[in-house]
Amino acid sequence: MTTEADMRGNRVLAAVPRPELDRLAEHLEPVTLKVGDMLYEIGGSVPHVYFPLTAVLSLITDVGNGHGHFVEVATVGDEGLAGLPVFLGAGPPSERATVQIAGSALRIGAEQFRHDVVVLDGGLQTAIQRYVQAMFTMMARNAACNRAHNIRQRCARWLLMTADRVHSDSFSLTQEFLAQMLGVRRASVSEVATALAADGCIRYSRGTIDVTDHERLQEHACSCYAVIRDAFAVAYEGLG
Amino acid sequence: MTTEADMRGNRVLAAVPRPELDRLAEHLEPVTLKVGDMLYEIGGSVPHVYFPLTAVLSLITDVGNGHGHFVEVATVGDEGLAGLPVFLGAGPPSERATVQIAGSALRIGAEQFRHDVVVLDGGLQTAIQRYVQAMFTMMARNAACNRAHNIRQRCARWLLMTADRVHSDSFSLTQEFLAQMLGVRRASVSEVATALAADGCIRYSRGTIDVTDHERLQEHACSCYAVIRDAFAVAYEGLG
DNA sequence: CCGCCTTTGTACGGTGGCGTACTCTAAAGT
DNA sequence: ACTTTAGAGTACGCCACCGTACAAAGGCGG
């Protein structure tokens, strides 16, 4: 059981109208997520659907080939949910879902979720479909970004997106972790981070990052940041 | 108006049960698509939803920044449809849809499509949702592939996927075009193509490619080929 | 048959990011 | 207080791929 205030902290749930939301509330369970927790695995089952409140999740795919074993393909914050395969119904996930930034989330059992979405067939279904479209934009952009933009640009974008999701200019993050998310060497992150800090965009020390100048940081980032942010804005336009 | 045989040539439509399909038939219009035709533009309206039969489409996104202006983020063949924004309902597309390999397709007006999907709420909705999940896998993999695999691997994968979609070992394709799809120099494609031909995987001459040895070509490709192919197989499992 | 255009082969120097490895320092444990 | 460890800075050689350029060759119209 969960309060309405909690639920409105997730933008997908916030877009669900009252009576439907009340029924969902009974099945939504608040949980605290720690960095590195795995919510579901590639090819495995998806026991719960997660609606992040303050946590940030990461969808990661395995590229068998080579040494840099995995690559982040999308992130999920309070603007979305993890567990779309339950909604879409075409077999197990092709990504791993892990916790990128610790925090809180609401979760619901996969069976219950399926039941609620199908039976109610109202606001939740619509909200998720709109979210799916924004996810498409994010992933498309991600693919293009990986092809076209350099490390500094991608790194700056990642920091901006994460700051947006945690609603704070400060969050826990080691360069090692960031390097894995970006699919690059830690050494490269170190160089870029030093440059960004020298330019006054960020400060950091032993696992804590502070974004000190969003605008200037955005100048270092590629246009993908704005494109993705806007895609989510459009998806939730007039929905709550 | 369209015959059932035509409709069964597209795997999404093939998954729709009889009575529902009959009603769709009235509104599906057969069209012939030429290379380079643009079906819809980034941020523009989506007048029709397309179900390819023999044509292959390409979803392309603009990366403003730099010279290699655009990057392919997904392809659509007879296993899918183009125009998902109409289905998902969260604003205009963030990709351009163009024709990659000429051929036939069925199309339906966006308004009519929305009407049919919502009112009927049956097999088509389910089939599309499953397709959406497979598309997720493709795009996720694309993003990872762009980060992790070299030109030879990506080129080989692209050729294999295209051969699958056109159901033929031979199709029209210039190196210039392929280079744009992969987001690399034409010169790089030329080098890779020469190597693949020397290895007996492909033959080609002035705009026509022949895949002469799928298995050997697959050895040059990355695992992304099999992963994506299998994702679509799972999506359509037991659906028709 | 000739000239033109498209498609392809090939070469050159430049560079962004890689793999690796070593150092330094702040924090955490005992 | 002393050790250990995690986080971060830096350097070196290397290579895949880039931008660019030019030449060869197949196809097409005149």
Automatic annotation (TrEMBL), chains A, B:
Gene3D superfamilies, per the entry: Jelly Rolls, Winged helix-like DNA-binding domain superfamily/Winged helix DNA-binding domain
Keywords: DNA-binding, Transcription, Transcription regulation
HTH crp-type domain segment(s): 149-215
Annotated InterPro entries: cNMP-bd_dom, cNMP-bd_dom_sf, Env_Response_Regulators, HTH_CRP, RmlC-like_jellyroll, WH-like_DNA-bd_sf, WH_DNA-bd_sf
A Gene Ontology molecular function term of the record: DNA-binding transcription factor activity
Superkingdom: Bacteria
Transcription listed as a keyword: yes
CDD domains xref list: CAP_ED
Cellular component aspect of the GO annotation: cytosol
Name of the protein described by the UniProt record: Crp/Fnr family transcriptional regulator
Organism per entry: Planobispora takensis
